[in-house]
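Hi team, as promised in this morning's meeting, here are the two structures we talked about. I've kept the exact order from the run log so nobody has to guess. The first one is mostly here for context; it's the second one we should focus on when we meet again. Sequence first, then the predicted structure tokens.
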Amino acid sequence: MKPMCEQPPPTPDDPQVITNHAIQPPQGQASHVAVTHRAYEAVQYDFYIPTLIWELPSVKRFIERLDAIDPGATRFEGLTGVWRGDREGTSVYRKILRRDQFDPDRTRSALQEAVGQLMADLCASPAFAQDTVMFTETPIKVMLSAHREVHPPGR
């Protein structure tokens, strides 16, 4: 049976663990699924963006620049940030990049360039100009679990 989710082969720095689990449908015989669990070192980047500016074209271009580095991210909406004692609606845009595929120093430089361009773009309108933009860079270990294969009943 072909794996349901293709993954690169394990390496000494990126071992995998396989667990097997029963699938019990409401009717019929149980089958089993094999799940591959892998861990890898990564860097998590969180960009804090006020809700006031989120829909602006300059912010959309900024997000496009981030996604050009590597597609995929998570947006956390409806948060409240406190900046200099004032509360403001905030979204956090989170990207996670594998350490073995992206050098953190080079990535940081690219991100600083993108943030600088965002700030320059926002300066075109005094109502939306930001005197500060914050992002964080955090080393993390990612745990990724994926279906490996499904075994029909009796196997």
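And here is the second protein, the one for discussion:
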Amino acid sequence: MTRPGLRIVVLAGVAAVLTVATAFADGVPPLQVQINEREPEVFVVQWRVPPMIPVGAEPRPILPNVCEPESPPMVTETPGGRLHEQVYRCAEGLAGQAVAIDYPLAGAAMTALVRVELLSGARYAHAFAATETVWTVPNVGAAGLAGALASWQRTVMAGLRHAWAWLPTLLLAVAVAL
């Protein structure tokens, strides 16, 4: 291999390593939260915490003030992490209400994926960035379509930002292949 060709391969390798390191900088899978409306105004909230997060430092979902716990949280150890489950009664439902993520340790924020399924059949998902802690469940029944579209747009943009991190690697791979 010629010296200029070797430089391109080395630069491509360094760029690939830096891109992968950037994309997985925290090395922690996202917090996964599932909220299902089991019956009117009764919600089952499950959240899976990655196994590398120590007990006591576990992030947890915070439901709005209209919600009261009906059961203490239950925790099940699984190979994919600790699965927490708690049942809430939310007097006004969750549509149009804010759902938050609480991080007990300062600076320990991580990405989170929240899914909400309502009895109406409405389903929502929101990807929290590591710096984001509050999301409002869309209220499509009232003038909430704009909010639902804005939420969708934020989720798509977050995905594009993640894809953007891979663009240099793709371009270098194409350049090396040519």
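Starting points for discussion:
Confidence is low (pLDDT under 50) at residues 9-26, 142-146.
Helices lie at 3-23, 145-177.
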